[in-house]
Write a structure and sequence with these properties.
The protein is 39% helix and 14% strand. The chain is an alpha/beta fold. This is WLM domain-containing protein.
């Protein structure tokens, strides 16, 4: 929402961030760059970490932001006008860094203690015919936590899906070879990463601190193909090393994908197809509307530091009130509405081609 008048040369703009509405007052001559600086001063989110989803147009904008006048850029008179801010405050990012460092320190400390105990353990000179063989130390190269979104339908099913990816023999083998240790593997909310032009399949934040995967269909009524999601995970693991989609990144992605296929003993270690890992021109489908990701992210929209699943669930069960929190029914309705818009647009394009 926004308001301005000739008598009052102040532009009032409401920004929605993490289910909370923030009303900002700026001079009527302010630019988009001024708006992002104002957001930084109030919410402590640097412009480089900001993404602005402006409805109905121009859509998603991200850094660097041009100095375009807000009155020329924003559809202020539209009844559907809304600005959603995607971004994480600097203190939250620092908290995640500290949490990740502490988790890695504890994991290394446990591994060191177990290794020292193993050295002092007496060795048996003979072996028995039977018995259970276990690893001498836990595998530190894995996803240390799997977190579903508890405010979406059937979070237990999502947790099983995430744990299946974590325990996939091919994924485990590839992560051990490249020494990938990821603190958090979580699912992506399709409604937050779907636009009329594209849908994002995965995200890697801060080179392996958090990996998000699109598990669900857009309508939340089912789950996507497992092998397709696993390929996306290979892509996101490569972002632990390379942020940009350059030649080095694609070479590593292809290598990880082949290693995952070879390490998948449940499938006999054989690839189901003779193709190498996808590249954008080959792997997109649904008329180019699927976007693997937008390169490796620094910061980004995620609840960092002290996240508790029961809190997320309770917030999502509440109906929309003054604080702007959406209920589960509204989330599903918004996803269904977006899907219907896409279908109408595709039908119009097909009619135009005929």
């Amino acid at each position: 929402m926004s308001s301005c008048s000739a008598d009052n040369p102040i532009l009032s703009i409401t920004i929605h961030h993490k289910s909370t509405a923030h009303t900002l007052s700026l001079p009527q001559t302010s630019t988009l760059e001024d708006l992002t600086n104002k957001i930084h001063s109030i919410l402590q989110i640097p412009p480089s970490n900001q993404k602005l989803l402006i409805a109905p147009k121009p859509g998603m904008l991200k850094s660097p932001f041009p100095p375009i006048p807000l009155t020329a850029l924003l559809p202020l008179t539209s009844p559907k006008f809304k600005i959603t801010l995607l971004g994480t405050p600097t203190p939250a990012i620092e908290a995640l860094h500290a949490q990740s460092t502490e988790s890695q320190r504890r994991a290394l400390s446990r591994a060191s203690a177990l290794s020292a105990a193993q050295k002092h353990k007496p060795r048996h000179t003979s072996s028995s015919a039977g018995g259970i063989h276990t690893l001498s130390s836990p595998n530190q190269y894995t996803f240390h936590r799997c977190l579903p979104l508890s405010y979406l339908p059937n979070p237990a099913r999502s947790l099983q899906f995430l744990e299946r990816l974590r325990d996939d023999p091919g994924i485990r083998a590839a992560m051990a070879k490249h020494k990938f240790s990821v603190p958090l593997l979580t699912e992506m909310n399709p409604a937050e990463h779907t636009t009329s032009e594209s849908r994002t399949l995965g995200l890697n934040r801060n080179k392996g601190e958090v990996i998000e995967l699109r598990l669900r269909t857009d309508a939340y009524d089912g789950y996507r193909d497992y092998r397709t999601i696993r390929k996306t995970l290979c892509h996101e693991l490569a972002h632990c090393v390379f942020s940009e989609h350059d030649r080095d990144f694609w070479d590593l992605t292809g290598l990880i994908e082949r290693e995952v296929e070879r390490g998948d003993w449940k499938s006999g270690g054989h690839r189901l197809t003779g193709e190498d890992f996808y590249v954008p021109a080959d792997w997109e489908n649904e008329r180019g509307r699927e976007l693997v990701d937008e390169c490796g992210w620094t910061g980004g929209e995620f609840v960092l530091g002290g996240l508790r699943e029961d809190e997320v669930g309770r917030r999502a069960e509440r109906t929309t009130g003054d604080d702007g929190v959406e209920s589960r029914r509204e989330v599903l309705a918004r996803a269904a509405e977006e899907r219907m818009k896409k279908e109408r647009r595709w039908e119009e394009e097909e009619g135009g081609e005929n």
